Amino acid sequence: MNNALIFDPELLQRYDLSGPRYTSYPTAVQFHEGFGEEAYREAIAASNTAARPLSLYVHLPFCGVVCYYCACNKIITANRKRASPYLADLHREIELQSALFTPGREVRQLHWGGGTPTFISDEEMSALMNKLRGHFTFLDNDEGDYSIEIDPREVTPAKIAHLRQLGFNRMSFGVQDFDPVVQKAVNRIQTVKETFDAVDAARANGFKSINIDLIYGLPFQTVDSFAVTLEKILELSPDRLSVFNYAHMPHLFKVQKQMDADTLPSPAVKLAILQYVIEKLTAEGYVYIGMDHFAKPDDELALAQEHGTLYRNFQGYSTHAGCDLVAMGITSIGMVDDTYSQNVKSLEEYHERVSAGKLPVYRGVKLTEDDKLRRAVITELICHFSVDMAAMGHAWNIDFSTYFAKELAQLQDMAADGLINLSDGRIQVQPRGRLLIRNVCMVFDAYLKNEESKKRFSRVI
Q1: How many C-beta atoms surround the C-beta of residue 317 within 10 A?
Q2: Is the pLDDT of residue 330 over 80?
Q3: Does the annotation list 28 as a binding residue?
Q4: Is residue 361 a part of any domain in this protein?
Q5: Using an 8 Å Cβ cutoff, are 295 and 301 in contact?
Q6: CATH number of the domain enclosing 88
Q7: What pLDDT is recorded for position 295?
Q8: For S-adenosyl-L-methionine 1, which residues are the binding ones (predicted)?
Q9: Which residues, including other chains, have CB under 8 Å from residue 126's CB and lie 6 or more apart?
């Protein structure tokens, strides 16, 4: 596919609205407590009939130190023993969940997220992985995508070697920024050496994919300071890079109030940083996948996009569109059959439910046919920047132009601005529109009815 990008500051500023990141459609805003354990069990039964392979997500919420920008579901504590009772409950949930899925369904994908997954000890990690392997069917030929999020401050070469022995073959390293002034402002002090040592250890132990996370829009950042960070990161030659736009939403995430909003870069500076990042990474040969993600041309994400098989879920872009996602641990979100579901948020309620032999699902949503159709359109747009209207209509037994007449009328303004092309029976996102793909997707979102609902989402740029 054509991966060209055109950076148009005037258009980017004009279209810089708030909107979903579309790790799901409908988004989590539409989850409701009318969907509970019984509905989730019904979804598993339907999933067993389809017998799709599985993707497992395990949430380990503990962090030793809080990062002020963080919008993740986490528990801040210096007491490592606090993880023990939670892990016992997590083991119990693994037993409860696995008993409902037909044995033998392959686990093609695994992800441990947080929090900081390596907050727990080597022994606890071994016990958790053994529990998962004892209750689900893992691939033992290193062909599965088994990944873990890493804080370089929390690992040693020995711990990384241990993770490889457990079967992990992908790592995602949080860096955000190397500038000491920025690090102090966000309460994340992390040296270049810690990061380089961790990545070197991962490579030495045969991890086949390295991702590094950066954030632009943090306090005191400038184009020049971020350029220094990016140059250092490129020395590591990561397979993938995620360069996220910091969303300052203290009304939703109270910890962000610890940062002085007056020190955040202006929208113009943020745009300049983004432009520098895009130009630098594309010049270095990285492919812009979309939504802040870059990958080397031979990376599986880039190849999946080229072949039209890229997918997007709660972990971001994925090559495993055909899996049911089973999520375990507090706050975790799964996707089983035509449903989304989320576990309870507190340790106390989680313990109460799993101790009683109950699944900890407390809310979710069952997709309607319209939801599934719109999800298919949004997925094509956000993954491949194109929709073949005739093919989509045939697949869903609709006349696309009639069904989406209102949406196609709305797209005319974007077409006039050069964001998209509507000729030849396709919606084709143009180089000017690729950075604004969330805006294009929002046209097909039936739930964005008022400005109040948009306040829950970050700005698109």
Answers
A1: 23
A2: yes
A3: no
A4: no
A5: yes
A6: 3.80.30.20
A7: 96
A8: 57, 114, 149, 333
A9: 162, 166
Mean pLDDT of 31-50: 97
Judge if 322 and 402 occupy the same domain: no
Identify the domain boundary among 266, 296, 326: 326
How many Å apart are CA 325 and CA 145, to the nearest integer? Answer: 13
According to the annotation, is 224 in a ligand binding site? no
- Would residue 333 count as lying in a domain? no
For β-strands 137-138 and 145-150, DSSP reports them as: unpaired
Look at the alpha carbons of 102, 105, 108, 112 in this order and tell me if their dihedral is positive or negative: positive
Same domain flag for 21 and 55:
no
* pLDDT band with cut points at 50, 70 and 90 for residue 73: confident
Whether the CA torsion 181, 226, 192, 61 is positive or negative: it is positive
63 marked as binding residue:
yes
For residue 176, say whether it is annotated as part of any ligand binding site. yes
- The answer to whether 72 is a known ligand-binding residue is no
Residue 308, annotated as binding a ligand: no
pLDDT of residue 17: 86
Q: End of a domain among 274, 308, 326?
A: 326
27 annotated as belonging to a binding site for a ligand: no
191 labeled part of a ligand binding site: no
Q: Are 214 and 241 in contact (CB under 8 A)?
A: yes
The first and second tokens of residue 152, run together, are 């370089």
What per-residue confidence (pLDDT) applies to 339? 98
CA-nearest of 72, 303, 287 to 188 is 72
For residue 234, being part of any structural domain is answered with yes
Q: Taking residues 253-261, what's their average pLDDT?
A: 93
Whether residue 152 is preceded by a cis peptide bond, meaning omega within 30 degrees of 0, is: no
Helix (H) or strand (E) holding 326: strand 324-328
Q: Is 213 annotated as a binding residue?
A: yes
Does the annotation flag 323 for ligand binding?
A: no
Specify the pairing of strand 240-245 against strand 170-176: unpaired
The reply, when asked if residue 115 is annotated as ligand binding, is yes
Examine residue 316 and say whether the peptide bond preceding it is cis (omega within 30 degrees of 0).
no
Coil, strand or helix at 103:
coil
Give residue 13's pLDDT: 87
From residue 126, how far is each of 97, 134, 246, 461 by CA, in Å?
20, 12, 34, 40
What's the average model confidence in pLDDT over 61-67? Answer: 94
d(CA 162, CA 166): 6
What is the structure's pLDDT at 82? 93
* Residue 415 is labelled as binding a ligand: no
Given this model, what pLDDT does residue 450 score?
57
Q: Is 340 annotated as a binding residue?
A: no
Two structure tokens written together for 164? 């490889």
Is there a single domain that holds both residue 159 and residue 108? yes
| pLDDT number for residue 453 | 54
